[in-house]
Structure formats: structure tokens, C-alpha cells
Amino acid sequence: MRIIRADRVLTGRPGEVIQDGEVAVDGAEIVSVGPRGSAGDAGEIVSVGPRGSAGEVLDLPGHTVLPGLIDAHVHLGFDATVDPVTRRSAESDHHLLLRMAENARKLISAGVTTARDLGGRGFLDLALRDAIEEGLAVGPHLLAATRPITITGGHCWYMGGEADDVPAIRRVARENLRAGADCLKVMVSGGQMTPGAPPSWVCQYSTEHIRAIVEEAATRGKGVAAHAHAHAAIRSAVEAGVATIEHCSFFTPSGHRYDPELADLVAAGGTYVCPTVHGVVWRLRDKFGSEMLDAWLDGVVAMRAAGVRLIAGTDSGFAAAGVANDTDAYVAGLEVFEQAGFGTAEIVEMATARAADACGVGAVTGTLEAGKRADLIAVRGDPLERIADLRNLTLVLVSGRAVTQTGVDTVTSSVG
Length: 416
Description:
With 416 residues, this protein is α/β, with parallel strands linked by helices. The chain has 2 domains: 2-67 and 367-402, Roll (Urease, subunit C, domain 1); 69-358, Metal-dependent hydrolases (TIM Barrel), CATH 3.20.20.140. 31% of the residues lie in helices and 24% in strands. The chain has 12 helices and 19 strands. The strands form 4 sheets. Strands 1, 2, 3, 4, 5, 17, 18 and 19 form an 8-stranded mixed sheet that branches. Strands 9, 10, 11, 12, 13 and 14 form a 6-stranded mixed sheet that branches. Strands 6-7-8 form a 3-stranded parallel sheet. Strand 15 and strand 16 (323-324) form a beta hairpin. The chain is globular, with a radius of gyration of 21 Å. It starts with a strand and ends in a 14-residue tail after the last strand. Residues 47-54 have low confidence and may be disordered.
């Protein structure tokens, strides 16, 4: 058994802080969480460091221990241009899988111990997920959506999930689930990053179409993540009963237009929203102008005020106007929430317990409590005082395995 002691333990439950606390881990599982000494003396006290033998006490003065971070929206297989022609013709599956493995390692370097990959080609996300669980690759626990379901020629069509009517939609959904998908992803609206596809303010599917996907997912106990920018797409996603809405940006042909009545509908339905707030917001603001980005961020703040359950997810992997949203820049996205007026305790909850619940894994991770998976991080400082302290990683455990990867340079960038 390993005991990790720190100045404070954030359990992930709202407002719960254990001063001078400790977490006891046995193998892949947390066995106790409480004040210093509550788990007994496991053996020799070891100074700061991520590794050690069984029976050690790892004492981390000046540190905070908290649940591992969760990125609810990533694309490990995107390239720097998100160009379907490049992806289909110039990058083999073998090469792409290696790129995805490197991006998974970079997620770990940011303290992310669970990530939801919402769109992958050729079921490579499943291969990587299983390799990580077997210990053949370094990365977080992955929740893989496999091929996004989209119309022919629709947003992200090149990942192989094209379907235009209810029978075809059910077929693709069943194929994804048969392959081992952890959730399903549907492109309810168009998007800006697929040449020739409908734009983000245009709906691709009706409520009937989305409900068919929700029904198929439910047969396997899975949830559905709905990519939805347009007002009608957001409404249909809620009516169909999806688990999470991705982006939820209230886009129109003239830009962002927040709809308070629609936000109230989302909140009343209890649907989680991953607004994909990422750390390159301010750089994109310089590229595209302040009006659009400020209106979008104001909409995120307004959704929070309306009672919408927001979670953290970065949409990492894309690049827009030459600005890359790097896989290992997770904390930068949390800092944007902080700058928008969110409290640090709420941000930690959005990045841990609430994100775990939204992704359907709250029973096994997202909080520090006995019986849950030993997914946790230790950082120097206090994230409740400065969310940026989440960058100061000393320890990362994924199912009890120490996998800290900070300070490792690689040749490839996180997105290409």
C-alpha cells in the first residue's frame, strides 16, 4: 500500500478540502482518504518523488492532492490542418496511431488521467485505449467514440461515419458499439473545419435522427455526445436526450447569438454542456477580432448563470488560422474559465467530479474516495488559490501507476 500525504487533499466533491490529509492507494484502487495518520503507517517515509516501493509513505509538503483531471473533448488523431484530403491520402493508419499515442502521452503531461476522444478514424482510438489499459502505451484512460455519425459529406465525414436516414444511422451506431465504442458522437450541426460541409449554423440531423442514436447507445448503457452549434441543433439534442452537448455556441450566419430561453431548456433537461473552452481563446481573439470571441465567452458565462451544468473539455487537436490548440495545454483552458469569473473550486469540480459524471464514469473516477480508481495528481501550491498551480505537477497516478511525464520534449507538435 502507498500513502500520499500533502498539505491539503481536494476530494473533488464540492467544497470538500482535507487539510493536512492523505490518500491511501492499494494497487489500482483508493482504499482510504482522510486526515494525516488515518490510514496508519504504511512504512518508510519517502521524500518528494513519483515512484517507490509498495508500503511507502510519500510525503509532499507544500502540495495539494486532487483527482486526476478530465478532458471531456479531445481529438487525438487530428492533424495540424484538419484537412481530410491530407489525412486520407498522406497519413497511414500506422503513422496516425503513433501520433495519437504521442498526444495521449502529452495529455498525461498536463495531469489529465481520463479523456473522451470524440472522433477517430478506423477505430484506432479503440486500439490506443486498449494498449494504454494493458500498459503498452502511456496515457490517460480513454473513452472512445470512434467514428462520428454525420451526413454524407458532412462535418468530419472523412472519419467514416456517414449516414443519411434512420436505418443507416442505426447501422453506423451499431457498428461503432459492436467495435467497442464507449459512447457515440453525432454531428447534429455542421462545422467550420471540414471543407465543403454545411457550416456550423446549419442542422444536419433532426430530433428523430438523434433519438435513434440515443436509443442505440442506451441498449449498451452508453451515452451520446452531440456536436451542436446552431440553435435548432441544440434544441433537437436536448429533445432527443443526449448526455452532453459539445460547443453549444448558439451560432447563426451572422455570428454568436445567445438565446436565454434555449439555455433554460438545456438547464431544465439536465443536459451537460462541454463548451470546449480552450487556452488559445485570446490568440484567436487577436486573429478573428474581439466581437465574436467575446460574445461566445459571454454566452458561456450566461449558460452558467442559467444553471447549465458545464464541464471542462478543450477540443484539443485542431488548429485555426495557424493557431494550434495543443493537447498538453489543458490547464490554459481552465485559466480562461477563471478569467471569465468562474471560481477556482467550481473549475476544479468541472474538471473532475462533474466531468466524470457527464462522461458516465462518475462511479469509478472523478473524486477521491475508497473503492474508486486511483486516478490522482499532486501539484505544488494550492489550485484553490491559483488555478495555474495545476501546472506544477509532481505526481500523476493512473489506476495507481505513476506516469508523470513532465518536461519531456518531442519533435512533433501536439496537433501535427
